[in-house]
Amino acid sequence: MEQLLYAAVALISDIHTAIMTLNDGREASFTDKELHFIVIGILGIILIFIVYPIFKWLANSGHTMVIAWIYVFTVIIVITFAIEIGQGVTGTGSMEMSDITAGVLGFLAAFAAFSIIRGIYHLIVRKRSNSRRR
Questions:
Q1: Tell me, what's the pLDDT at 118?
Q2: Is 30 left (phi over 0), alpha (psi -120 to 50) or beta?
Q3: Whole-angstrom distance between the N-terminal and C-terminal Cα of the chain?
Q4: How many Å apart are CA 28 and CA 50, to the nearest integer?
Q5: pTM for the full predicted model
Q6: Cβ distance 58 to 64 under 8 Å?
Q7: Alpha-carbon distance 69 to 53, whole Å?
Q8: pLDDT, tens digit, 9 for 90 and up, residues 47-102
Q9: Cα distance between residue 98 and residue 100, in whole Å
Q10: Whether 31 contacts 134, CB under 8 Å
Q11: pLDDT level of residue 134 (50, 70, 90 thresholds)
Q12: Most exposed residue of 59, 96, 118, 129, measured as fewest CB within 10 angstroms of its CB?
């Protein structure tokens, strides 16, 4: 997990460097804020075109829990990064990728336990409804 997060950070850094090189090489002279505005705006629209059909298909096929999981997982990633950045800025702790990894793994473990309990519940409910139909 930690290697995946480091790889994502490295990829974002490489993309940032490439965009800055393009900006400087073409003498476009966009400010950092203008580049964030343009790049994040374009990225957001691209993600809408990718995510919307997937979520629509998941919703129509009764996989609302998958949509909820993706959303919560995304929020957990943002929160764990925010906590670590906050600790670094305020000096209330040390910024460590292993803390982020531990937090995300905590969510995955809690969700795994929830999934097992939910699965057992659905098996019991399904078994009861099948026995009533007979």
A1: 95
A2: beta
A3: 48
A4: 29
A5: 0.72
A6: yes
A7: 17
A8: 999 999 999 999 999 999 999 999 999 999 999 989 988 888 888 888 888 898 99
A9: 5
A10: no
A11: low
A12: 129
> Is the alpha carbon torsion for 10, 11, 15, 21 positive or negative?
positive
Q: Give 4-21 pLDDT, tens digit per residue.
A: 878 888 888 888 888 888
Q: Which two tokens stand for residue 113?
A: 């336990």
Q: 1 near 101, Cβ under 8 Å? A: yes
Sorted by sequence, the CB contacts under 8 Å of residue 83 that are 6+ apart come out as 99, 103
> What span, in angstroms and rounded, lies between the C-alpha atoms of 53 and 89?
39
Query: Tokens 């629509």 — which residue?
Result: 56
Q: Angle CA(14)–CA(23)–CA(48) in degrees, nearest 5?
A: 65
**Helical residues (DSSP H) of the chain, grouped into ranges:** 2-25, 32-60, 64-90, 97-133
* Rounded Cα–Cα distance for residues 104 and 2 (Å): 10
pLDDT of residue 88: 85
Residues in the chain: 134
